Each structure stands twice: as C-alpha cells, then as structure tokens.
C-alpha cells in the first residue's frame, strides 16, 4: 500500500460541470429567473446537477450506518518510514497518516463520478464563473486536542501548502491555482482562484486537509518528524516502532463520527501498518497471519503462491475460488517511463524504436498467465481514451496545432507494436533498427553497441547506448529480462538496479534515473490537478513532481487547461481525446499492461456492507468492520484449537 489511497480513474462526462447542489429556479409569468450569482449547498460536483445525495442524506449508500466499531486490523506497506508529516518532501512519510489523522473541508463520495460533501465545512458556495469558493465551517469541528478548527487554520493551511520552502513540491503544484484564502467571518473562509473557468478547482479546494496554526507555531513544518502531529480525523497515532510499524487508534468521541459523510465508516478500533522490504516477503507474512488484507499485483504470485494451511482451511478468503472484485475504473498508463531529461531519450524516434523491442504478447502468456490487456492509452478502459482518427470537435482542436505536433496524430490511431506471441519478433526489431538509424544511432562494430554523434564523454569520445531501469521491487526483474535481451540484439545495453523503497522515492523526487517502470499516473473520474503534475511543463522542473518523463510541451499545457475548463460533456471528451493522442504520439512511455479486475485476499474476520462503491473498493473507503465472532473463531484456529460446528458455520465453512 502507498501513503495514499489508490484512487483511480476517469469517467466520461455527460452533463455540465461544477456546481453546488443544483438549485431549482422558479418561473414567473412564463419567464425563467436568471440563476443567482452564487449558490450555497451541502455538496459540490464536477457536473451540474449530478449530486446523488440531497441535503438531508444520512450516510453514503455503500456504508452500513449500523456497522459495529472495534477490533484491530493490520495492513502492510513497502520499505520503511522516518516521518509522520505527509505534506513535506523531507523524509519518507508513514503510510495512511494523511487519510486517517487529518479531516478535510469536504469528503469524496465514491459512488459518483466526482463530488464532495460537507465534512469540516458545513456548506460551500460557488459562483457561476467558478472564480472562488467559500466555506462555512462546522462549529463542532475539532482538532484532537479539543481546540476548534477555525477560519484562521484554513488560511494558515493554504499558505503553508503554497510555500515551496515548506510543503512538498507536489502539494505546492496542487494548490498553485488557488490564489489566496481569506477569513470572511467567524466561521467562514473564501478561496480566490487565479482565474475562473477551471471546473475542478472548487473540488480541489474542498479536498484540502486542515492543519492547526497554533500547533505549528514555533515548529519547523518542513523538517521530518516522528512526533505525532496534531490532526482532526477519525484516528490518531498510537504506538510506533521506528521504521517498521505504526498503529492508528480510533478517537473516542470523535467530533465527525455522526456526520453523513462518515456514518458507517472508520469502523476499526485500531489500524496497524507493518512494513516489509519486498512484496514476496510480505506475502509470506500475510499467509502466516501477520496482517489481514492484501491486494495482489502479480499474476504469477496470484496463480502459484497462494497456498498453505490458512488458505486450505478457509481462514483466508478470495483465494481458493480466485474471487475478484470487478474494476470499474478507467486505468492509467503503466509502462517503462523514459526520462527525456536524459539526452539519449530526447528524440521521440529513439523512444518509439525501443517500444518495438518489447514483446508483450509473448510475455503476457509465457510469464503472466495471459492475464493482462495491453495498455495503449493514458485513459485505458474509458470513454476518455482516444480511438480511431480525430473527428468533429477533437479534430477542430488539433487543427489549431497542426505543424507543431506529430502528423501521425491526424493520420493514425495509436497502438503499440504487436507480435504473434511466438517469441520471434524479427519484424519489429527490423523496424526498431530503422527508427534508430533515422534518429542518428550508428553501430560500433568493435563494441557491438549503438553510438550517437551527439552523445560524447568529456574527452569527446562517443558513448554507447546504455541505460538503467530503476526498480524498487523484484517483481519486474524477470519481466524486464526478455526486453533486455531484445535490446541487446539492437545494440542497446539495458541494466537493472533494484534499490530499497526509501532510496527509490528519493531518486524519483530528484529525477535521478534513466527509466522507471510503474503505474504512477493514476487518473480519476474527472479531470483534476494531477494532469498538470503528471504532464505539465512547470512540473517537469519541479523537484518531487510526478512529471517523471520530463514532458515540456506548450501544446500539452494548453490541452490540459482546455480539459479543465470544459463546459459540456462533449467538450470534455473531445479535449481529453486530443490530450491523450498527444501523449501517445509523444512516445514518452513504452506501454505495459493493465488488469480490469482486482486480486484481493483477506483473513476471514471482516464484515462487509452489501454494496460496493462504483468507483472504489469498500475496504479502501473504510466501510468494512471486524466481525467479532469471526475474529474469535479465526483466533482459535491460529492457536491450533479445533473449530466448533458453530465456528464453521460463522466462517461459512459449512452450511445448515
């Protein structure tokens, strides 16, 4: 698990955009009244009038308001940690701390495309031009020390998050388009945006956690710390084993427990996060009962490693019958990500050539049980993925940039190279050689490696085409080896280096790598600030951003701005298709694959709500609970005590 939830995927827009809960305007004498300059409501959505829950809703539909509280649940994380402040660049923050210990102004609903409802904020006010948003804070909102959450705290938080000397650069980028915050009353605060028209900004502001100005007075915010920082969320930090484990304890009498956005959620009495140095070791620890829930991202482990006494006895669920949860989310782009800051990857023809050396069809069935679908878009499994040739509104958008963008954008549908799966991809390697020659690479007959006249060492000697793939997990080593062998046939030398998670994160923050391989660009249901962070020119030089490719293209910048300002569903689709096409034909990534379902395993101790949220999994949205009877029966099994018929019935191991 990462330090934040795995949020996914972008859904297509069908209606108009950001608004508070849509007001109904009366008609007089057959003439409609003009809508007010601003509307106040209990929630906001990206799409006008699309709030699912009315002002009197009591709980989200995917939560059980009667779920029992209590019990201890353990989950796992990779690597280690040395800080509990998730908002700074220094150190490696402990997993889940932002999610569980900090309340936000508004809370996300995961059975809607993209909406937020009042949390710390009781109401939100948004004008028609979306140039600002104003919040009225709940009088009962409190930090864990009992002090009220005030408008001054909100202003302090935004100022801190916008300060590059204090906050993580990714957070600075997230809030860069929010110009300022000002206290406008005893419990009211107003956010001013740099400009109107960005329909995502009100939701971005609503998702901001709130820090205590009084707590941070006299403390160095930018310095990594293990001192539990003051929060306001459902949990606070309890015990901590330096770098290896941390426990979050549920706050008794928490002020937000009975809010509609929280009722039936945050049911565990305590959540313990245990750290492991790699996922293989973590799997064995899971089967031994060291933690309770696991998401599996390896098809090989899923097919071959899930066996043992706990699984055979039915103590671990979702394994024997390979139960999976459908994945309803569009998938981001996973692949080998080229760092175009490196001179060897400056030319898109070079990047495209390397794609021809990757034999997905062979790897998928020879090494991964034919489990995956080839990624081709930055919005896989979504209406937002560009298909066919551009037409209509999308074509009109792209025509403005003709001559500045690849001509293939207009003439070809992007698809990565294919093979017959036999392992013989001579035709693709032949095309790779052609592209490499066009890009200026020449084979040195002595070293049998490619060289480029523009790549020379300090003495002016051409340097061979060598690059390193940086990894933080052993799962990709065997999947990279066939790619390595094909590149060798082209005269390209690929090496792999696996480092621990902490060092890996530091290298990514510093853009200190040739190539990484990961799905680091998760997309969400509607366009958001992450697009600029992933692919915007400003982020390319912002230390700690997620523009891992180093993309600096004014056309992409303009397309991102157009997407965020779309005024209709049709506009959103057309603009996102154009953006997707530009990213595809930039060859910034050698696409890997995606899975359209989840692989999950859990110890048989949980109670689950009857409904899964459409855009997430209920475990990640904190709507599961510990079933005390199940937990007692599983504990008996772990102690090698025989299970009674009643326990077998409770655990679903026998019928009536």
Question: What do you see in this structure?
Answer:
By secondary structure, the protein is α+β, with helices and mostly antiparallel strands. The chain has 3 domains: about 190 residues, Periplasmic binding protein-like II (D-Maltodextrin-Binding Protein, domain 2, 3-Layer(aba) Sandwich), CATH 3.40.190.10; about 140 residues, D-Maltodextrin-Binding Protein, domain 2, CATH 3.40.190.10; about 260 residues, Dipeptide-binding Protein, domain 3. The protein has 21 helices and 30 strands. The strands form 9 sheets. A 5-stranded antiparallel sheet has the order 4-9-10-12-11. It has a 5-stranded mixed sheet with strand order 24-23-25-18-26. The protein has a 4-stranded antiparallel sheet with strand order 1-5-8-7. It is globular and about 75 Å long. The N terminus is likely disordered.
């Amino acid at each position: 698990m990462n330090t934040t939830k795995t949020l996914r995927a972008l859904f297509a827009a069908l209606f108009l955009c950001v608004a508070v809960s849509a007001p109904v305007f009366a008609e007089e004498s057959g003439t409609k009244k003009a809508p007010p300059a601003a509307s106040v409501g209990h929630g906001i959505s990206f799409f006008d009038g699309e709030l699912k829950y009315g002002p009197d809703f009591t709980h989200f539909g995917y939560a059980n308001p009667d779920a029992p509280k209590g019990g201890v649940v353990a989950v796992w994380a990779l690597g280690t940690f040395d800080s509990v402040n998730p908002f700074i660049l220094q150190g490696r923050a402990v997993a889940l701390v932002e999610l569980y210990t900090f309340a936000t102004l508004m809370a996300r609903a995961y059975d809607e495309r993209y909406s937020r409802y009042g949390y710390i904020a009781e109401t939100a006010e948004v004008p028609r031009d979306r140039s600002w948003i104003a919040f009225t804070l709940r009088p009962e909102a409190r930090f864990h020390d009992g002090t009220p959450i005030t408008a001054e705290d909100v202003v302090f938080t935004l100022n801190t998050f916008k300060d590059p000397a204090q906050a993580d650069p990714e957070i600075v980028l997230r809030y860069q388009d929010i110009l300022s915050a000002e206290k406008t009353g005893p419990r009211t605060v107003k956010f001013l945006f740099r400009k109107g028209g960005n329909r995502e900004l009100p939701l971005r502001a609503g998702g901001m956690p709130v820090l205590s100005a009084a707590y941070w007075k006299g403390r160095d915010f930018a310095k990594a710390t293990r001192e539990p920082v003051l929060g306001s969320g459902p949990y606070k930090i309890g015990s901590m084993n330096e770098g290896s484990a941390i426990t979050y304890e549920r706050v008794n009498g928490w002020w937000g427990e009975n809010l509609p956005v929280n009722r039936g959620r945050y049911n565990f009495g305590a959540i313990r996060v245990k750290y492991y140095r790699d996922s293989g070791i973590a799997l064995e620890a899971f089967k031994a009962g060291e933690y309770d829930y696991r998401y599996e991202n390896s098809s090989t482990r899923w097919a071959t490693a899930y066996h043992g006494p706990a699984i055979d006895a039915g103590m671990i669920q979702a394994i024997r019958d390979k139960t999976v949860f459908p994945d309803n989310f569009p998938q981001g782009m996973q692949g080998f990500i080229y760092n175009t800051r490196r001179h060897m990857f400056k030319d898109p023809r070079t990047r495209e050539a390397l794609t021809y050396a990757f034999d997905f069809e062979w790897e998928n069935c020879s090494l991964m049980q034919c489990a995956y679908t080839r990624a081709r878009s930055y919005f896989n499994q979504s209406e937002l993925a560009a298909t066919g040739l551009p037409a209509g509104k999308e074509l009109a958008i792209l025509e403005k940039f003709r001559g500045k963008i690849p001509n293939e954008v207009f003439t070809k549908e992007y698809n990565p190279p294919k093979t017959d799966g036999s392992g013989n991809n001579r035709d693709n390697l032949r095309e790779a050689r052609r592209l490499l020659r066009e890009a200026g690479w020449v084979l040195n007959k002595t070293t049998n490696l490619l060289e480029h006249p523009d790549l020379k060492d300090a003495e002016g000697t051409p340097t061979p085409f060598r690059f390193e793939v940086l990894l933080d997990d052993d799962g990709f080593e065997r999947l990279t080896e066939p790619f390595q062998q094909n590149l060798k046939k082209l005269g390209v030398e690929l090496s792999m280096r696996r480092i621990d998670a902490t060092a890996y994160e530091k290298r990514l923050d510093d853009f200190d790598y040739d190539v990484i391989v990961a799905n680091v660009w998760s997309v969400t249901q509607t366009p958001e600030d992450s697009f600029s962070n992933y692919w915007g020119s400003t982020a390319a030089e912002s230390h700690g951003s997620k523009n891992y490719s180093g993309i600096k293209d004014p056309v992409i910048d303009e397309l991102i701005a157009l997407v965020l300002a779309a005024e209709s569903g049709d506009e959103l689709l057309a603009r996102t298709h154009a953006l997707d096409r530009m990213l595809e034909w930039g060859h910034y990534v050698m696409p890997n694959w995606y899975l359209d379902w989840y692989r999950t395993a859990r110890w048989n101790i949980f109670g689950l709500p009857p409904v899964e949220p459409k855009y997430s999994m209920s475990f990640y949205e904190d709507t599961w609970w510990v079933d005390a009877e199940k937990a007692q029966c599983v504990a008996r099994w772990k102690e090698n005590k025989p299970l009674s018929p009643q326990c077998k019935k409770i655990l679903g191991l026998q019928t009536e």
